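**Discrete fold encoding**
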Amino acid sequence: MLQKWWFQNPELGYHVCKRWKGIVLRAIEFPLKKRLQYKQLYRTTDDPELRQLYKQRSDALKQILVKSLDSLDSRLVSWCGGYLEPVIAT
């Protein structure tokens, strides 16, 4: 039997591929992983100088991610309370 590489999203009305990552995901994957690493280091480090450094780097990567997604299409994604949330057009 053939395996389905996509699934139908009834809320959005289009297919979503499970096999390949899109160009947007591949583009933001590295900065997102680095930001999560810096956030983890920030939480686990006791040295105040290193905490400040990790916090600054995490904040810089956050702005890079926000601006990169904002430049794609601000109508599709909203930055709400620190989380990316899709905006469904009605």
In short: The chain has one domain: 22-86. The first strand starts at residue 6 and ends at 9. Residues 22-86 form one domain. The first helix runs from residue 23 to 44.
